[in-house]
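Tokens as discussed.
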């Protein structure tokens, strides 16, 4: 496993957030979108999507999957401010979703922030539309199409395939998702934000953390120590708070626990 900490394997951080009780509400509506309870749940879902979109940015990209969303980023080997920035952004998303949920007396959302290695991957060669666009550019360069004709054809392209390469074989995502789905049975219950302590060193300055929870999934061989994050992290502590690990230190900690 020590080999997994090599530069060939990026060290990733992921925040998975999930609306609590959404599936049960849809089930009570008989999976009928015209049912009043389903309409209420769908309105809740759309607001969740809007909040995720509002909190997304280049350094905090997200992917929505129905009543859940994942934010993801590769950690910097030597710059712990990247880790701190991600934790701040994740908390802001978590807080915004739960504030909106509380206003309408919904059950809230649970977030799990986890670290792990991921495989490198690229979209190139997988998407047929990319090849079609390249062919249009080549046709323009060769004089077979005008720019206007190429733009018209490009506008008619509809993708039949999509992929987010940083989330494929991303074991931070695996850990965060499986741990969140375990919920109360795994010690991670309620509409709370749980932080993988692998991301932190010894210092807890600027962090309001609950008791450490040792989580395991024996069947998958997954294990981690989490703690509830109870308030916005690192307020007033600058770009690189003490105790936050950079990617290299997180990789070492992950390899040591394997």
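Sequence:
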């Amino acid at each position: 496993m020590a080999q997994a900490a090599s530069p060939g394997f990026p060290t990733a951080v992921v925040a998975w957030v999930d609306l609590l009780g959404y599936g049960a509400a849809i089930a009570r509506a008989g999976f009928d979108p015209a049912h009043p309870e389903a309409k209420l749940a769908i309105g809740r879902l759309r607001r969740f999507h809007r909040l995720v979109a509002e909190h997304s940015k280049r350094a905090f990209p997200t992917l929505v999957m129905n009543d859940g969303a994942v934010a993801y980023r590769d950690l910097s080997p030597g710059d712990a401010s990247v880790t701190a920035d991600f934790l701040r952004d994740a908390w802001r998303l978590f807080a915004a979703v739960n504030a909106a949920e509380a206003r309408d007396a919904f059950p809230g959302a649970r977030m799990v922030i986890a670290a792990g290695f991921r495989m490198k991957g690229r979209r190139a060669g997988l998407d047929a539309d990319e090849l079609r666009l390249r062919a249009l550019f080549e046709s323009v360069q060769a004089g077979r199409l005008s720019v206007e004709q190429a733009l018209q054809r490009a506008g008619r392209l509809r993708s039949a395939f999509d992929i987010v390469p940083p989330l494929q074989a991303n074991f931070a995502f695996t850990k965060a998702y499986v741990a969140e789905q375990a919920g109360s049975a795994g010690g991670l219950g309620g509409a709370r934000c749980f932080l993988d302590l692998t991301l932190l060193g010894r210092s807890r300055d600027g962090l309001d953390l609950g008791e450490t929870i040792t989580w395991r999934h024996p069947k998958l061989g997954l294990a981690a120590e989490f703690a509830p994050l109870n308030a916005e992290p690192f307020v007033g502590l600058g770009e690189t708070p003490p105790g936050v690990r950079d990617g290299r230190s997180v990789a070492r900690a992950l390899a040591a626990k394997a």
